[in-house]
Amino acid sequence: MNAITRRHFFGRAATGLGAAALWSLAGETAEAKGGLPGLPHFAPRAKRVIYLFQSGGPSQMELFDYKPRLKDFQGTDLPESIRQGQRLTQMSSAQASFPVVPSKFAFAQHGQSGAWVSELMPHTAKVADDLTFVKSTYTDAINHDPAVTFLQTGSQIAGRPSMGSWVVYGLGSETENLPAFVVMISPGSGGGGQPLYDRLWGAGFLPSRYQGVKFRSVGDPVLYLSNPEGFSGEQRRDYLDALAKLNQGTMDEFGDPEITTRIAQYEMAFRMQSSVPDLVDFSRESAATIESYGPDARKPGTYAYNCLLARRLAERGVRFIQLYHRDWDHHSGLPKGLPKMCLQTDQPTAALVADLKQRGMLDDTLVIWGGEFGRTVYCQGRLTPDDYGRDHHPRCFTVWMAGGGIKPGITLGATDDYCYNITDRPVHVYDLQATILNCLGVDHTRLTFKFKGRHFRLTDVGGNAVKEILRS
Amino acid sequence: MLWGGSLFAAAVSPVEFNRDVRPILSDRCYTCHGPDRASRKSPLRLDQEQSAHPALGRILERITSTDLSRRMPPAYMGRERLSNAEIDVLRRWIEQGGKYEPHWSLIPPKKTAPPEVREKAWPRNAIDSFVLARLEQEGIAHAPEADRATLIRRLSFDLTGLPPTPAETEAFTADRSPDAYEKLVDRLLASPRYAERMAIRWLEAARYADTNGYSNDGPRDMWRWRDWVIDAFRTNMPFDRFTVEQIAGDLLPNATVSQRVATAFNRNHRTSAEGGIVDEEFRLGYVGDRVETTSTVWLGTTIGCARCHDHKYDPYTQKEYYQLSAFFNNTPDRGFVYNFGNEPPYIYAPLPGQQAKLDALEAKVAAARQKVASLEPAVDRAYAAWTPPADWNVRDGLVTGQPRFDYKDPFTFAARITPKSPKGAILSIGEDYFEGKGHYLFLIDGKLRLHVTFRYSDLSLRVETADALPLAKTQHVLVTYDGGMRAKGVHMYVDGREMPLKVLFDYGIWPIENKEPLRIGAGGGLRWDGKIEDVRIYDRALSAREAALVAMTDAAARARTREAFLDLAPPPEYAAARAELQGLESRRAQLLATIPTVMVMEELPQRRDTFVLKRGAYDAPGEKVEPRTPAVLPPFQPNWPANRLGLARWLVDRGNPLTARVTVNRFWQMLWGVGLVKTVEDFGSQGEWPLHQELLDWLAVDFMDSGWDVKHIMKTMVMSAAYRQASKVTPQLLEKDPENRLLARGARFRLPAEMIRDQALAVSGLLVERVGGPSVKPYQPPGLWQELFGGKGYVADTGEGLYRRSLYTYWRRTVAPPAMMSFDSPSREVCVVREERTNTPLQALNLMDDTIYLEASRKLAERMVKGGGIDAGTRLVLGREPRAMERAVLEGALEKFRARYQAHPEDAVKYLSHGDSPRDRSIEPVELASWTGVASLLLNMDEAVTRQ
After folding, report:
1. ipTM of the complex
2. Residues near A420 by Cβ (< 8 Å), separated by ≥ 6?
3. Given A158, A202, A219, which is nearest B781 (Cβ)?
4. All domains of chain B, ordered by start, with CATH?
5. What tens digit of pLDDT does each residue of B397-454 get?
6. Selected residues 204-263 of chain B with any CB under 8 Å from a CB in chain A
7. CB nearest to B941's CB, from A246, A253, A268
8. A385 CB near a chain B CB, below 8 Å?
């Protein structure tokens, strides 16, 4: 923003025209920060969330859930005593046999907490003491679309609000210049991966202003953000001044408060036009910081870039920052595919945690890493000496959490020697969601919205916050 | 927060159960004291009269208790204390005897006489009497009639979705005849645009889209159903017939193609082509979607809530949910669907011109067939005189080079085999392991087996003979496949005799694209032990007769057959006639390939059993149920068939208390922005009690009395004085009735997404009006599809496709058109009937910077420059003259833009470069660019995007 427009803007704000211009909170209420009265329900330990969603279902056996005994079982058929007739996807249910395949990758314990981390995640291993691993997460769904939808919206069927929408609906925004709920997507090592869907950050039946805003790597970071070619920022200011006068004229005649809101939303749009370019301008980041996120950090659209951007969004008060990294779906070719995915994500993820910590932001920022389900211990498809694949496995997978509200350095829950069933402290997706809300000072049973006659909530009729890992 | 009704009625005594009490009990108590048996926490039910129950007397004590362990609703469930106002209502209700009433929406509506009003001159029809009586009771004045310019713009948007032209506005303003308004209404209702406007809300309710919606979100073709909907509104099809044809058109006697197309309504739900899903789980999900959609759209009920348990608030049991679902559970469609187009069942739905061509061609084919048949005696004579050669075999379609087949290619594999082992590969064109990709003909456990595999686990076609073939015996095997992606298109023959088959896996629905060589006696990791002779591969499916011919062991006998004769030495006249027939048949096939298809409903010949599913889980069937409608609603007549047709008749039966009410309420919402019952999707216990129930009921009955005449009821609504009121609001009225539920003023609300875009197209002259047809792809920011899916992404149309009404915009459910979504369009994933409106900065950015609005601004600017300037622009966009202030502001802006572009003429050219349509070169760029900025301002005005 140049000096003239800045003066214009503040001048306008001071006269009150821009004063109501608050993002995402919306329009219709005069509430300063948006959000619901009475929220948070109790003192929040986290003010914001960065959710590093690893889409496709990363293999827990290769990454965090160390299973040394699998070497002994190699190539043997998964015993019925373990499988217990559990549901398989249609893909592997046609298989004649279920040969157990151990991880090709070595594990070691790290940090004071002694957390087991795979050699594929050397950087994550270095921040292991800041993380809390939940090895006993489980879900209801076994296919991607329903499972991601379930994790992000609390229902396998489309139509419910996403987690970020719920949070912003409940807690409002901390920024007046940026969307309160931002989504960023990066392609995996194969350039693709399982598809994602707008509904994952949609507002469902909540008003659509609560939907996540996708920050994009192609074209404008936010859709339609830039002034069109041939139309300068200075002109935009003149334009908006004129528009505000025109709309004020309509307001004077019709008295409809929606008109005042519209004036305010145009001002908000104008502020976004300058705050977003500032946000994505890394020129004032130190070289050391950028390098810590790895070689991709300067490349828009990569996971590393998005991690760094996530920190910058967090600094600016964005409430819910949702990253998706695609392509963890290793039905086949896992020994080659998985290391590539780790190479893309391990360093940036760890750098984000360290960066937040170093800036004192980890205390009130909740970071979550995980996918929509785990993977099977048995090989899917053709098992050869160098190659194997794993099918979807909803019965157990590892999610880690760090920062605001979470006790660091804990490993919670356990699975059996086959990494097939949970043997200790099951944590359902609803429990995970309840825990996230709890960190934000929200009782998940009391954040509800009435729709079609029912008081809906993110956790439907389930969920208990996982007290063991919550900082008191 | 109490619902709207009590805002105005709280002080009025006595308490009315439906209006005042039920909303509190339902929302706060029914979860545990309501219809759901399983979750009822005490014998006390509050959803129905239980006068003898002593606990009723203790309600007051419990709801006011300060002891948290005793207080109701219980704190341990996270429930808040009732408000004092709510407690007061319940106290007065109990004091007045605690009387229950049946839920209002379950009692059939009655047409009550419109009430007397003091201001007798105001009402124009019954609607106004109801509205005014209430206003007089509240002591609120109605608003004056809006001015003519406002009225025509309001009516044009409400009835046609497009703004009036300045000429139309001028004519209406000048028309002083007493019926000027009615003439306008009639003109708009007769416009084809009316049908398009009505259709889009129906499309949203029907979750219409151009893609499947789950996961890969592949394409489908349902636009012929959209054409049907538009046509139904255009011809003013009575709503009862509109209902019956969409729910059960296929079951009507001698169903027409059009009636079958109508049933696509229930195939519009999302479908999944995600590898590895369980077919039955998803298939039942689709059935559930049909129940949910049907009950929302026609009944305004949330019976979908009873899928996993009894309904918590309304009197529907889980069993009743599954009884209702049984109506929709009898179709042959599958859960795991084809990713690249329509999933069976579908039908050809020719366009009118195509139908005529097809009919003509069919007639020619029939004549040609006749001609061929008539030559048979001559053939017989020639055949008798023929000297056969020593050898002959079926030649047509024989593949001599490397065979290349994909999943939709027909083929025939044939060989003479002498197996020594019950397991081996006869031939293959695929990877050399058993679960590999490709085509395989095996002997497995002695049975002849065909694999056509993309991925063995889930995308493969596998069929085998029911019985084993004998070993060590020479026998001829022949397998045909018609390329229809279904196992039923496979036939197997042994020594020319067709064998009974067993289908092992039936999902050959994915391209194989394999480059493997033909292997004989090998493939799939198997080898052949024994003899293989006379391998023949055809690129078509041979007939049973041909299979028998190929199997013949005596070559000379085969060469003596009539087929050999017809192949080798047909009489010339016969050959010509046969060629003619073949030519016509291939022309017909070519024509058929251009005819659009649409997925439809179809009944299975044998009824599929429906079960109550425990917790809604597909694999936990409980009690078996029959198709039946819920007990609390009027009975299903015994003369109605117990199928979708009966269900449709029941929905539009006079005795049904819901359909007409729910339907007119949605129409009302289209004109007022909000329904008389705000919860248009829920007329149940948790829904809003209508402030104007008598009005709603009057409209519902009038609608039915008129023969479900949609144009009639729309006209009745817009003819009312209430509708014609000005929408200006005073601060006093705003405070008293912020949501305008009392209707003391005209409605003022932001235009729906599609109208905002369509208006910009219309006022700029870009709009291409053509009713119906396939979806089009207007501009979209680059990369939106790739981000989520990779691949080629979205390719926008060129030319007319950029400028059609938004109704025709290609709708990919998982990445819906961004400009539609930012203006609150439903995503079309599930049925949505409530109109929502938000007001966000993204909308501002969209309108200021999206290509189509920049292009529309430019074209609008050309119009302004060529004549009339600012006044012309205002007339086009706002339908009125500019105010002096507006003229001054716009002129000021124009001057600023001019100064800028004079200093930076290169920017002017750039600013004019947005959009595909050519710029008017007769206008100097600096001037046009400056005016384009002004035009954009007009299009961004609150008034421009609002109907008021």
Report:
1. 0.89
2. A78, A82, A83, A376, A377, A393, A395, A396
3. A219
4. 4-101 (no CATH), 387-568 (2.60.120.200), 751-948 (no CATH)
5. 999 999 999 999 999 999 999 999 999 999 999 999 999 999 999 999 999 999 999 9
6. 213-217
7. A246
8. no
